[in-house]
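Quick one - inputs below.
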Amino acid sequence: MTQVTGRRVVVLAGGYGGAKLSHGVALAAAAREAEEADPLALTVIVNTGDDLELHGLAVSPDLDTVMYTLAGLANAETGWGVRDETWSTSQMLEHYGAETWFGLGDRDMATHVRRTELLRSGLTLTQATAELAERLGAPAHLLPMSNDEVRTQIRTADGWLEFQDYFVRRGQQDTVLEIRRRGIEQARPSAEVLAAIEGAELIVIAPSNPFVSVGTILAVPGLLDALLAAPAPVVAVSPVVGGAALRGPADRMLESLGGTASATGVVAHYRERYPGLVDTFVLDQLDIAEVPALEASGVSVDVLPTVMRSHDDRRVLAGAILANHLPD
Amino acid sequence: MTQVTGRRVVVLAGGYGGAKLSHGVALAAAAREAEEADPLALTVIVNTGDDLELHGLAVSPDLDTVMYTLAGLANAETGWGVRDETWSTSQMLEHYGAETWFGLGDRDMATHVRRTELLRSGLTLTQATAELAERLGAPAHLLPMSNDEVRTQIRTADGWLEFQDYFVRRGQQDTVLEIRRRGIEQARPSAEVLAAIEGAELIVIAPSNPFVSVGTILAVPGLLDALLAAPAPVVAVSPVVGGAALRGPADRMLESLGGTASATGVVAHYRERYPGLVDTFVLDQLDIAEVPALEASGVSVDVLPTVMRSHDDRRVLAGAILANHLPD
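Output:
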């Protein structure tokens, strides 16, 4: 890891949005160093409720998206997987009659092979993740939310589905009626997660899905309490802009689970479900019309350009959050 | 499998030479069918003493060489692995600090991933091999010599080495002083192997290494006895032609382990070590000068073109062995 000391920033992240904002913080950190400002020590706490076993291998889609993005290896076109990818293993697995609806490229496959080997050798997921991320040169501490297995499941009109069955195989087409997380009662945040939260100077909730990404992290028993007890300010970036999720089904989930598909709906979700957790919400400029009503109801709001199309966008958004909220 | 009934031919095989002769039998079988002769049911009993675990995956190099060759997927240039191969997984594994001295291409990787998954799900190696070979359309029954783990080890001036450490990592440069096989005492031939030997109408020992390939198969307790008790004639093809092994270290092993690097040395090895096992030896035309002395000492010899450069060579050699020795 390139940063071991510095101002301690913690990001709670799912996959795509969490990866981009985390990368923004890493880019902002590099910019600070170039200006000889105090360095940042970035820790990303990542949802593992989307994890699954494929071909006997341990696959952690959100951890990998964050890791590849931070290491500069992400596939910018797909938003998942590794760039310059080949697909030979997957094609051959298909010859063998294996199910290949979850796309695993050859470079990506190495991650799952290696992770599985490390886990089987006795490492925790936290240790295995640290080893992989360090080898790829990801400029952050990557922490799975827990070493314990948690599996998000989605209730649809067809009954309960495993998360990736809903998300990838069925393409998020089903209306989400309910969410549950197998193993969550027994899961605990790792010691590293608790230490990162306790020692943080700023905690950022990435523009990830509030239900299946951030919601799963917050559902790990003890993790929300740790966040509520942490001295650091908590800033949450809305994943809904202009009434629609930038990616994925967050907007439809807000509606089908009893809320509103809007930035205000995201704010309401966090405030009702996790009272006292978020100190400041970051909304996009596109949603500026929603700000007065929110502020009138006592919500602290920053309006920033939150749509991260370029690396510059990532750095600018993260830099603004740091400038506004990282205590001097 | 394309053949389930027919004249029952069993081949004992290591990797490259065993794969080519087995393929020859399969090609001869196809030619017989085209001529509406009675079909052949080919069973290949394969050495698994060269197996190893890499990246937590179960790798069976000889089984795979035979399977890929029979399925028409072999890499003709290297003699191992799959044709039209890519190397992305291996390159990425190297980034992760994994040892990649044993070349695993991306298509090949699928075989190990799938085999490992099948074994972990509770299948025997025999069952997993049948599943893989059938999916690839290999026109033969492929049988590992045993479902039990056996690991060949090589004593060199530097001490005992695991087989692939000697063979691949150190490139067969060490003089072989002794061979042993971890797990061999507890290993047993599978029921399928014993049934194939008992029911065979012709048994062919491929031109594979007499020590580490055929020798390891014959070292599985009970397997040699089954061969000696089998009613079928046993024909052995010399892997040494013109005083040199066509591939690999068989010639040097013959010398360092107390024999002679010649076709006659191969014959002597089999006759001394396994009395009564081989009924007929197949020598190459290049070694015709050695035949009179062998025949004078009571050895039955066929002289045939044994160097298999082309698919035609494979078919012609196998066809001649079948014509000479498969009972009417």
